[in-house]
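User: Predict the full complex structure for these chains.
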Amino acid sequence: MRQWHSFIMATVLLGLSLAGCSQQQRQSQLDTIISRGNVVCGVSGELPGFSFVGQDGKYSGLDVDVCRAIAAALFDNPDAVEFRNLNAKERFTAVQTGEVDVLSRNTTWTMSRDTSVGLEFAPVVFYDGQGVMVKQNGGIKSLADLKGRSICTQTGTTNEQNLADEMRKRNISYTPVVFEDVNIVFATYQEGRCDAVTSDRSQLLSRRSALPKPEEHVILTDVVSKEPLAPAVAAGDAKWNDAVRWAIYTLINAEEMGINSKNVTQLASSSKDPGIRRFLGVEGNLGEGAGLPNDFTVRIIKHVGNYGEIYDRNLGPKTKLNLPRGQNQLWNQGGLLYAPPFR
Amino acid sequence: MKTQGSIPLWRDARFWWVVGQVLVVLLTAIAIAIFWSNLSHNLQQLGIQFGFGFLNSQAAFDIGETPISYLPSDNYARALQVGLANSLRVTVFGIVLATVVGVTAGIARLSDNWLVRQLALVYVETLRNTPLLLQLFFWYFAVFLGFPRLPAHIQLPGPIYLTQQTVALPWFHTTRDTNIWLLMLGANLVLVWAWHWWDSRAAAPALPLLLKLLSTLVLTVAIALSVLESEFLRWDAPRIVEANITGGLQLSPEFGALLVGLSLYTATFIAEIVRGGVQSVSQGQWEAARALGLKPGYILRLVIFPQALRSIVPSLGNQYLNLAKNSSLAIAIGYPDLYAVASTTYNQTGRAVEVMVLISVTYLSISLVISSLINWYNRTVQLVER
Amino acid sequence: MTLDDAPPPALSITPWHWLRRNLFNTWYNSLLTLVCLWLLFQVLQAVLGWVFTQAQWTVVQTNLRLFFIGRYPPNLAWRIWLVLGTVVGLAGLSWGSLAPPRSPWFKRGVSIVTAIALGVAILLPLPLPPRLWLGAIVLLLFGSFGLGKRFATLLKPQLVWAWLGAFPILLWLIGGGLGLRSVSTNLWNGLLLTMLLATTSIVLAFPFSVLLALGRQSNLPVVRWFCTLFVEIVRGLPLIGILFLAQVMLPLILPVELRLDRLLRAIAGLVLFNAAYLAENVRAGLQAVPRGQSEAARALGLNPLLVLWLIVLPQALRVVIPAIVGQFISLFKDTSLLSIFALVELTGIARSVLAQPQFLGRYAEVYLFVGLIYWVFCYSMSIASRRLERHLGIGHKRT
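Assistant: Here is the predicted structure of the three-chain assembly.
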């Protein structure tokens, strides 16, 4: 009687292997997304100011608004986004395998990620640098004072490697305490397990503001590294990459032109400035060249606002985080944000 | 087949015996081939080539706890070895601790003291029915990080110091001459064995083995003491020097939380196994032992336990395996065990397949070692029984 | 004390006697009791002091919805309530029809418990609609319990089919489609996702485990080796490793077009893991069926497949039911590991809640609350499984 079992097994195996056979062809992710009707966006979901779930169950933050801008450009609906939480480790696999269309998860743009991990980066949405936060009364004034101390950090990030490099360069021995979860990194620091915590400066600032006594913590002036945070898409899909890229440039350019969510509809209908008219798709057909609707800029600005509005809403002085804009000002105001011309 | 021409081929069991197996092998091979071609296609698209060469490149990340020496300039292979050493460390200590706590709790569940019984029940039912991951968070944050910061400390007799940075226990340290001591003692054992073997070739040995062993041991120790400068092992108690703890065995809070969490969780299962094992010994054995006038402690030790062990040991082995496997949860509280180091390696190199193979082979070997040890012990228990 | 001068057994035990007998019968027991009391006092003082004075429970109160159903659309929450109602109703029916007959005192006890549960449900610090739903569900539970008790003989054989049949309907209620507004799996979070992951994985793992168990007993050596190899490899690996395999390797070995959703990959990992463990339980069940059974069936002229389907499996699986419940409990706990892979189940949503700026650092309250949820479910399931075991044991002896 036993041989029957092998047949059942065989059928199951056959079924499995047939399921594995299917023809392979490639089309741009952009077409897939448009026919699907929403953008799948990988975020952290655990990062105040960048992406987190509010009590109403809605995502908000800077990274989230980038995705909403892309959705607004494609569908005239900023909520046509499906957010997926990704941890630091699996984020790249998720983009490579097409599980998410775009990764907007405070990811540092590095050469190896751009060239060998199979990613393509969109423009930088936040210029950051890695810093180290310590307790004010801990007697630590610079990196050199961390000799023999313990430092908390998150695994799977550039922070972990930058720290190892920097300390090796300066020949300082220290004890790393490494966690998967960024909340646990800061919780552990707060509990006093570590003498210092290292992360991107924006995160340090935002986390410091959330500590019970923010004034007791200082961020060292030593900047360990530069961390340009940018969204990323899978490599080898120029069409989709262009769409993401120009959706983000729209945000920056809108602020530079003084266009915001309040005045955009009015400007689109009444402005005489040919630059603005071209930018807003009233003249010419810039959008269509990128495979986007011609009024995609209007849609983005109307629903999500310009970069300045997004920044103020998520990180600005009215929020609990209160991050100064610093390098994230426009280029003509002393910052690094610069969008190529819309022409 | 030919002789029984009346039986058609498809009714012949031997035919199906062969065809069935060939089919299974074939289908498995096809499935593996499909998976393999997908894998190589996908890897090719990602620009990754299969191979373990990456193990020789520089790891460039730091590891917090290094039982064996390690620098960020070492290669990935070394980093993984450090992870393995950390895993083994927590597994070995965890098994010992879990057994002690588990057996105690199991016996407490059978105590004639109502309060002890209820407390043991509450302990077992609470920890058994909540996820280990949450318990680890609890031990780490609420207990180990709740200890005072260093100049301040909690001191327990021993002396054991509890602080947020480290938990310090008294421990033995090897001395300069430990190796020579070990060598001499080993030589002593070999000598005794040879002597005894030589002696017992004839009918009856002149001296019993134990006496030979004792006498030579005394001699060896006397010689060693007079010749060597330092003792075999040095008792090393931690002490506080200038607001820092030195000496003793210093454990990080991550290790401490993992060890305590793992052991207490596994101990609840061991307690139930011990209780079940003891209860499986028939009531008549208790009555007979009591009739012989044995005290309760002796009954348990001499009559009940040896019999209960028979049913306890195999299940105990399963729990040890679970403990070893669950130690991979270390990653959640920042203890750099094998899995944590391997997943950092994967993250930096993107080599999913190679890392997965390494993890699998290592954990399978650990499981194999533990289960063969348990099987060996199980055999001795069963033999003693007879 | 000889038998003659032994006092007659006391009819009523005074508290004093009870204390003497259970806590202070020997000197070391007295010592133990005192030590335990002291320990208990210390622990309770610390814990209760923290719970009532230091802890800030607003984080739990404001996020209750997130913990239970996550980001499921609030205006569709009635569907989850319906699901809960169905499950509770079925559970009540099963409980009622499986429970042994009790004394009338027990009936009074049940009505008192119902009244208390109803009171608690209605007085909970929640908005009105959930309280009404909860109250209705408590009533439903005890109503269906009574119903199950009344029609026990009629219902008992149908229970398994009722549960199996309800499963797709419940999935449809949650996920929508076919007339209902569909809800993306991405929005199924919290306890809802934990429950779904655990149930789906165990249901899917079960047929695989039966195949594996049969394969391990097959008289075709190759089949036996494959199954043994699979089971032993999976059992030798930590679950976290299996989940890593499912999350990272599965997309690599499947063709580009067949990209499984992360939820499906998690389920695939859990199924793989549980199939191996369940297979061992099923194998034990198969071995418990006497050889005579299948020999007799074959002598009757049944073909091998029918022998398996009608004679061997029903007897084997019956023995395995408590082990399956046990496996389900550990699976329920193990789903917490998925939070390491950024799945937003109960532990994952706890981590998300902890990222809300106003509640940073409130992990003790959150983890304690989440732990309590896990505990309530696992403990009640383990009690149920013990009952079931006893019940099946009795049945077994009778036949």
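The CA atoms of residues 39 and 351 of chain B lie 12 Å apart.
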